[in-house]
Design brief:
Distance between the termini: 32 Å
Radius of gyration: 21 Å
Order of helices and strands: HHHHHHHEEEEEEEHEEHHHH
Strand content: 15-25%
Largest sheet: 4 strands, antiparallel
Oligomer: single chain
Length: 372
Amino acid sequence: MDLSLDETQQQIQDSTRDFVRGACGRDTLVKLDKDPAGVSSSLWPQIVEMGWMGMALPEEYGGTGNSLTDLAVLFEELGMGPVPGPHFSSGVLCARLLLDAASDAQKKKLLPQIASGERVFALAGTEGHYGWSADYVRMKAVKDGSGYKLSGAKAFVHDAMYATDLLVLVRTDEGVSLVRVDARASGVTIRTLQGFVQSLAEVTFDKVTVSPDDVIGKAGTAWDALHRTMLQTAPVLCAYKVGGCKSVFEMSLQYTKDRLQFGQPIGKFQRVQDHVIHIVNFMDSARWTTYEALYKLDSGQDAASSVHMAKSVASESYMRATDFGHEVHAGIGVSREYGLTLHTKMSRSLYGCLGAPKDHRRMLEKVLGLVA
C-alpha cells in the first residue's frame, strides 16, 4: 500500500495549505467561531472559487471526478484550521448521496448547482433519540395529494445554517425515504445549537409541503443509499480529523519548546513528553486507518471493515488528542483566542457525524460475522 502523494495530490495539498495559512489564520477562525454566519460571506466564495465543491462529482455533472484520496488530501489540510463551513456536508456527503439515490433528472438539475456552489445542501437525518440505523428515523411524511406534509424535528444537523436546501430522511409507507426541502420554505425553522459544539443546528418542520418532484429517487430506498454513501464519504471526514490531530500536535509541540518552567522548556519534563506521545499515537492511529480505507475504496476492494474501523478510531483519536493537548497547555489552552478550543469543539461536534464510534464498532462486528 503506497501512501505517498502523486503530483495531483501534491498540488491539492500545496494549494489548500496556502489557503488555510492565508485566509484562515487563527484570528479569522476565532472570529468565525463567535459568528458562524460569517462563513458564508468570507470563506465560502473563496472555497467555491477554488473548485473544491465539484471534486466529488463526475465531469458530466460539473465536477472534476477526483478520487476519494484526492478529497482526503484536501480535507486533511482543511482540518488543520479547523476550517468551518459546509464543504463536506454539501460538496461530499449530499453530493454523493444524490449521485447514488437521485433520478437522472434530479442529478442533472441539482448536482451542477452543488459543484458551482450555487446551492448548498445539508443532510437532516438524525433526531433527538440519536442512533445510526433505519430504526432511528421516525419523523413521518404524511401523504398529501400527490406529495407529502412534513412535521417534526431533526437534531444535530451539521451546517444547516448555511444551507439553501435540506435532504431530509423521513419515514413513508414504503420505508425510509429522502426528500428535498427548501431551507427557507414556510414552516422550516433552523436554530443554531449553543454550547461546546460547532456548526450544529436543530431543524423543525411545521406542515411543510413536499412536491412529488422533491422525493429523491425511489421512496423507501433511502437508508440503503445513505449507508453506501457513508462507506464512500466517511474516510474523507476522517481525513479532516487527521488534520485536526496534526494541528493539535504541532501546537502542543511548539508550546513545549516555548514555555519555560524552572528555567527550562517544559518539553524536558517526562510527564509533558508522555502527553505529546499520546497525541502522536492518536494522530497516527487515525491517519493509518483512514488512508487504508481510502486505498481500498479507490482500488475497488471491499472496504467496509476498514471504513468502520477508520471512523471509530478517527473520532476517538481527534477527541483524545485535544484532551492531551489541553494537558500540555494547561491554563492557556482554554483561552478562546489561543485557538486550541477550536479543535476541542470540532472534535466533539464531529464525533457522531455519520455514526458514533459505538455504531461503527457494531457494524464492524456484523461485517466480520461476529454478531448476527
